[in-house]
Amino acid sequence: MRGMFISIEGADGAGKSLQAAKLSQYYKSRNINAVLLREPGATRIGELIRNIILDKNNNEMNPITEILLFAAARAQIVREVIKPSLEAGSVVICERFTDSTYAYQHYARGLDKNMVQTLNEYATGGLYPDLTFFLDIPPEVALSRKKKQASLDRLELEGLLFQQKVYEGYKKISSENNRVITINASREPEEIFLSIIKEITLKEEIQ
Ligand SMILES: Nc1ncnc2c1ncn2[C@@H]1O[C@H](COP(=O)(O)OP(=O)(O)OP(=O)(O)O)[C@@H](O)[C@H]1O
Ligand SMILES: [Mg+2]
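Above are the sequence and the magnesium ion SMILES. Below is the predicted complex in structure-token form.
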């Protein structure tokens, strides 16, 4: 049986890594194979591309270059990790996936929506998550969480206006796709996690 593909989306600092790790632990405690991934990255080539994308020194990067780099990393992770893992029956938990491209490159950077769709189609080969969680939290709150950490990367340094466009984009994506479930992420980590588990259980029941 093919495993479930879950993506976790939201602005920088929304709590994606924390919830993805909790979810992975949850599956492991139930003796279910779970593969925990982040985009861009998770493959050797993908991590090299990630470094180029997030490098603070690359501030002359053109938005088209940026979207093509994201697409390149995605093409690799889908074929090298996600597809084989799902075929082997594992649950795949991916921090960020195709919706990030709509939120950041279309809604925030202003690149054409059809181009985003076409690139996503090529990069994924038509493979999309079964379930996507959008961690909904005002960008200023999410960013203030991040600022407590060490240093910010190139995209996190874009500023609040950019993050607000990303956030509005996510809300639109969530309202337009049944696959995307909005989770109030302004709460305690455990409460957020329980909401996620509740939705997964519902999804498992109807499958
Ligand atoms: N519900 C929460 N309440 C308070 N702090 C939180 C919550 N969830 C995560 N944090 C903290 O906020 C910071 C950002 O969380 P995390 O790294 O999980 O976010 P992220 O969405 O993965 O960020 P990035 O976009 O950089 O990958 C971390 O220091 C984390 O411990
Ligand atoms: Mg993270």
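The helical segments are 16-29, 44-54, 63-87, 98-108, 113-124, 139-147, 160-176, 189-206.
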